[in-house]
Amino acid sequence: MLTLSTEISTPLVSQIVDGLRGLIAGQVLKPGSKLPSIRAFAASHNVSVFTVVEAYDRLVAQGWLVSRAHAGFFVKRRDDGLASAGVRATTPDAPRFDARWYLKQIFENRNLPLKPGCGWLPHDWLFGDAVRRSMRQLSTDGPELDGYGLPYGHMALRMIIAESLGEQHISVEAGQVLLTHGSSQALDLVARCLLKPGDAVLVDDPGYPNLIYMLRFLGVQLLGVPRTPTGYDLPALESLLVTHKPKAFFTQPRLQSPTCSVASTAQIHRLLQLADQHDFVLVENDIYADMDVSARSTLASLDQLRRVVYVGSYSKTISPNLRVGYLLARSDLLADFVQLKMIAGLTSSEIAERLTFGVITDGRWRKHLKSLRDRLGEAQRQVGRRLDSLGFELFHEPEAGMYLWARHPDLPDSAVLSQDGAGEGIMLGPGQLFLVDPRTTGWLRFNVAFCSDERLWRFLLQRIEMGQRVAQD
């Protein structure tokens, strides 16, 4: 019926809509004639059934087609003049979804008003008042503008970090704390110092997309350790260790992204035993620690940095725009990390570090964290109930953290759903991004702090109903 092409920038949905409107306006498809079924059109044109559903639904909404229950789609009888005038009245193209697009566009968030798939908190959930107070104080103190910061970072902040980690039973001195430009720089420094191309490296699966892409760029062999609702698939992990002899395991035991699962203390103990037995480094990415309502043992607290490198950040709880992270390691490793930090980008920003110091020494910092945890806990419950009411399967039902990992039986391809969502101004978190070996999956990451807008739920319900129609077609 139509000739479609994946070699041009116009999305397939738009090609189908434009093509069918042209056929109708040109009287090739007569009023009242029946269109091929959704499955038949998809098979004959080698496209997804969801693509056809979206195209047919757009044509129904624009008045070109009519849908009849249990009969199919038919060309609507309409005024010829209106039809001719409407041939060129095309709707804006939806952005095409792919991993590169997502990693770029998720930071250009002004383009998408709804962001249930993003990785940060809304503006009014952050500690804005303390940031403004710290900025005023910093201005009064007169920050030094005519030089770089210290290689290890601002000493006062490193001291307060060491003190606060002591409360979590991680015994460190300020000299073992290296400040970085966010946790991403910390992870990059660790990877480039410890790994070389071809090394086997373990990561959580599903896991942190930026880390996965960064490690791929370094040329290492990525091995996914399956996450379970209670932590790790330990038999799978032990099999990978025997077969591949990895150099390191980059992992998030606590409130892991995207699943928000938490590894038990018993599993953490076992990880440390396996690290000793198989001689690999554990890189503990604990950037969601301040969101946890429970005090927990960490790899770093049980190991005291013998085999563990510990990474933290303030970007999640103060502001994503304040790029201040830190890492802890034993002295010999930390010296290498500092040297690479200086070679790669000189010092991190002392102004940002002093600003962060002012925020976390603000008298209301602990109250802010408690309020944030309470708010996230309530959002977890509300969003979980909404997803359950629509028929979503929840991977895990956490009591803390930012995320829910869920899928729906009538939404088998989260990438297609995300592309459709982007066309309607909704940034979703498609499961393919988080998998070590990307493949079609229905899993989605929902940021519970961004799921209160009813437009999201209307969109999901509409797509579920479309999926059910396809199944019945």
Give a structural overview.
The chain has 473 residues and is α/β, with parallel strands linked by helices. Helices cover 44% and strands 12% of the residues. It is built from 17 helices and 13 strands. The protein has helices spanning 12-25, 38-45, 49-61, 80-85, 99-105, 128-141, 155-166, 182-194, 209-218, 234-244, 265-278, 299-303, 331-345, 350-360, 365-389, 414-423, 454-472; strands spanning 65-68, 72-75, 177-180, 200-205, 221-228, 231-232, 248-251, 281-285, 308-313, 325-328, 393-394, 403-407, 444-447. The strands form three sheets. The protein has an eight-stranded mixed β-sheet, with helices on both faces. It has a three-stranded antiparallel β-sheet with strand order 11-12-13, covered by helices on one side. A two-stranded antiparallel ribbon has the order 1-2. Strand 4 (200-205), helix 9 and strand 5 form a beta-alpha-beta unit. It starts with 11 loop residues before the first helix and ends with a helix.
Summarize the structure.
The chain is α/β, with parallel strands linked by helices. It contains 17 helices and 13 strands. It starts with 11 loop residues before the first helix and ends with a helix.
Helical residue percent band: 40-55%
Q: Given the helix and strand composition, which structural class is it?
A: alpha/beta
User: Termini separation (Å)?
Assistant: 20 Å
Poorly predicted regions are: 79-97
The neighbouring-strand order within the major sheet is 3-10-9-8-7-4-5-6
What proportion strand? 5-15%
Q: How many runs of DSSP E, i.e. beta strands?
A: 13
Number of separate helices: 17
| SSE series | HHHEEHHHHEHEHEEHEHEHEEHHHEEHEH
Radius of gyration: 26 Å
Largest sheet, in brief, is: 8 strands, mixed
Mean pLDDT: 87
Shape descriptor reads elongated
